[in-house]
Write a structure and sequence with these properties.
- With 224 residues, the protein is mainly alpha-helical.
- Helix content is 59%, strand content 5%.
- The chain has twelve helices and two strands, in the order H-H-H-H-H-H-H-H-E-H-E-H-H-H.
- Strands 1-2 form a two-stranded antiparallel sheet.
- Helix 1 crosses helix 6 and helix 7 packs antiparallel against helix 8.
- The longest helix has 17 residues.
- The chain is globular.
- The two termini are 22 Å apart.
Length: 224
Amino acid sequence: MYFMFFSVFQLNFQRWFFQFVRHLGIYPSKFFLHFIKPDRNSNWPERYISFIDTLKNAFEAELHETREDMVASAKKIFEANGNDVGDAVRINLNYGGRLSYLENDWVKPVLLRHLDEIMNGKLSSEDRNLASLLIELSEREQVDLKNVCEKDPLNISFDVINWKKNKFMEPLHNLKMSEKLLKFSTDKSQNLSLKELNLLELSAPLDKQELYASFEPDTLKAIS
């Protein structure tokens, strides 16, 4: 459960969507529980289930029944790293970065399906369409660190900019406006983060999961 709170409120994973459903009366903890523990009798995207299982295994690998088991595990890691302690385990950061940037192909349908099931027939088509639009907004905000490119603008009829400035305190429906085109660009701080990325890549090429996990949470927020 903490993993989801960290991903959403520290790494900004789908922050627009989760702030919106909060105003629909869904507590974050309830939605997170559905997300982490889906009904296995239902037909979910394979990559979603694979991600959940891999995350579960990663957390369970850190659990030890006795002190002796913990010492033996630490010794094994120490010896495998050439008598070095190795890198610190950062499960929340590693998998949070992966969820935010590398799993986009299944995130939208999965979130909307969980929303449908939690609302149990009480979700209006307008709210569902808005939830879908907010998921797309988060996707457009993201920067592919290995392939930085211009994002298409997004038509939206709600003042999401002021909604964010006011810390999502009121329902988004209160901020209805005439439809406008929302454009996406990078500022100086974001460009600096991308320069840091380039230096990192020059020193040691990384695969995508390592790449996003190599940034601390505040940096991830700056480039999202």
